[in-house]
Write a structure and sequence with these properties.
about 400 residues, alpha+beta, 8-stranded mixed beta sheet, about 15% strand, globular
C-alpha cells in the first residue's frame, strides 16, 4: 500500500497482529475442519498481545484507537491466516457488540460490561436476525416490556454468531409495540438469565469454528441497568452497528489478499507444457485483474473508516459501499485464485478454498447486497421508500 503508509503507532500494532496470527497459524486448518475453536482462550491470547478492545475507551481498559486502526488490524490478520476466525478476537472485543454498548444511554451499562469484554473474561456479540425478518431490521418481533426494575423479553433470534458460547448479547428489541424503526432499541442479555436459552444452529460452509445458533426469550427478566438504547434511537443504534459492516469489508479484502498471495506463490513454481505457468498471458492478465480489484476495494474500505463519526462509527453510505464492493471483490479474487491453482484449488490441501468459503459467508453478515443497495440509493437520492408496501 504505497499510497498509504501506516504511522509508527499503527505499524507497531500491525507487528503485534502478525505475531499473534503466527501463533495461531498451526491450528487454523484443524479448527476449520473440526468446526470448533477455543474462543475464550483465543481472546486471552489476543490480550497477551494487547490486541483486545481496539476502539474501546481507555477508561474501560481499551486502546481507544480508531476505525482505520481497526480495519488495518482485521485485514492483516485475515490476509495472513486466509481465515475469518482469527479476526473474531477483534470482532468480539471491539466489534459491533462493544460499539453498541459504548453508545449506551447510561453509564451503568458501559461500566458493567466493557471491562470484562476488553479483558477477554467474557465474549460479546449482537443478536439481531429473527426467523421471519432476516433482512428487515425495522420489523422485529422480539419485544421488551417494562416491569418495575426489569424489562421482560419475549421472542427469538436466528443465526447469531457466538450463540451457546458467548456471554453477552446486545439484543435488538421492540419497545411499547411501537411499529417500524421508531420502536426498536437494544438491551444486553446475559447468559444464564432466567427465561433465556440457546441452541446450536446449523453447520456453515465457511466462517467455521465460530458457533452460529438460535436464541429464545420466554418472559426473560433483564435488569434495567442492561438497557443500551430505548425506542426512538434507531439511527444511533445503526451507527454503532456499522462497525459490523466495516469488519466484513476488512475481512473480505483480507481474504482476497491472502488468496492472491497464495496464487502468486503457486504460479511462480507451477509448470505446464515445459514452462512456468506465470509466463502465459492469460495468467498475467488474471493477476493484474485481481490486483486492481483488491486495490479498489481496499481504498473504499479505508475511505469508510476515514469518514467514521468520532473516528469510531462508520457512516452508513460509505461503509455500505465499501462492504458491497469488498464482498464482491473478495469472492471474485478468491475464486480466481482457486482457478490459478488448477485442480489443487478445489482440494482441502491449499488454503484458497477456505478463503473462498469464508468470504462467501462474510457476504451474508451485516446485510446482503440487495439490502445495502437500498441504503446506498436512499442516501444518494435523499428518498427512502417503504419496502412493506
Amino acid at each position: 500500500m504505497e499510497y498509504f503508509q501506516p504511522s509508527a503507532q499503527q505499524q507497531e500494532m500491525l507487528t503485534r497482529v502478525k505475531a499473534l496470527c503466527e501463533e495461531w497459524m498451526p491450528f487454523i486448518s484443524k479448527w476449520d475442519r473440526e468446526d470448533k475453536a477455543p474462543l475464550l482462550d483465543m481472546l486471552k491470547t489476543a490480550g497477551k498481545y494487547q490486541l483486545t478492545g481496539l476502539m474501546v475507551p481507555k477508561q474501560y481498559g481499551g486502546l481507544d484507537l480508531n476505525a482505520i486502526d481497526y480495519a488495518l488490524a482485521v485485514e492483516l490478520m485475515t490476509s495472513i491466516s486466509k481465515s475469518w476466525l482469527p479476526s473474531e478476537a477483534f470482532f468480539r472485543t471491539s466489534g459491533p457488540c462493544p460499539a453498541i454498548i459504548i453508545a449506551a444511554e447510561n453509564e451503568a451499562c458501559r461500566a458493567k460490561f466493557l471491562p470484562d469484554i476488553v479483558a477477554g473474561r467474557k465474549a460479546g456479540t449482537i443478536a439481531l436476525t429473527e426467523p421471519l425478518h432476516g433482512s428487515d431490521m425495522s420489523d422485529l418481533e422480539t419485544t421488551a416490556t417494562e416491569d418495575g426494575n426489569y424489562f421482560i423479553l419475549n421472542g427469538s433470534k436466528r443465526f447469531i454468531t457466538g450463540a451457546t458460547e458467548d456471554d453477552i448479547y446486545a439484543t435488538f428489541v421492540r419497545f411499547k409495540n411501537i411499529p417500524g424503526s421508531k420502536g426498536v432499541g437494544a438491551i444486553i442479555v446475559e447468559k444464564g438469565l432466567p427465561g433465556f436459552r440457546m441452541e446450536k444452529g446449523p453447520e456453515f460452509m465457511g466462517a467455521r469454528a465460530t458457533p452460529h445458533g438460535n436464541l429464545f426469550f420466554e418472559d426473560c427478566r433483564v435488569p434495567k441497568e442492561n438497557l443500551v438504547l430505548r425506542e426512538g434511537n434507531f439511527a444511533r443504534l445503526m451507527r454503532a452497528f456499522n462497525i459490523e459492516r466495516l469488519h466484513n469489508s476488512a475481512v473480505s479484502v483480507g481474504l482476497g489478499q491472502g488468496a492472491y498471495d497464495e496464487a502468486v506463490a503457486y504460479i511462480r513454481k507451477r509448470k505446464q507444457f515445459g514452462r512456468p505457468i506465470m509466463e502465459f498471458q492469460s495468467i498475467y492478465h488474471t493477476i493484474a485483474e485481481m490486483h486492481m480489484e483488491l486495490e479498489g476495494a481496499r481504498l473504499l474500505m479505508l475511505k469508510a473508516a476515514l469518514t467514521a463519526v468520532d473516528g469510531k462509527f462508520p457512516r452508513a453510505l460509505e461503509v455500505s459501499v465499501a462492504k458491497t464492493v469488498a464482498n464482491r471483490t473478495g469472492r471474485n479474487v478468491c475464486f480466481k485464485a482457486m482457478q490459478l491453482h488448477g485442480g489443487d484449488g478445489v482440494t482441502m490441501d491449499y488454503p484458497v478454498q477456505q478463503a473462498y468459503r469464508d468470504v462467501v459467508v462474510a457476504s451474508y453478515g451485516g446485510g446482503l447486497p440487495t439490502v445495502l443497495n437500498n441504503i446506498i440509493a436512499g442516501a444518494l437520492l435523499g428518498e427512502k421508500f417503504d419496502q412493506h408496501k
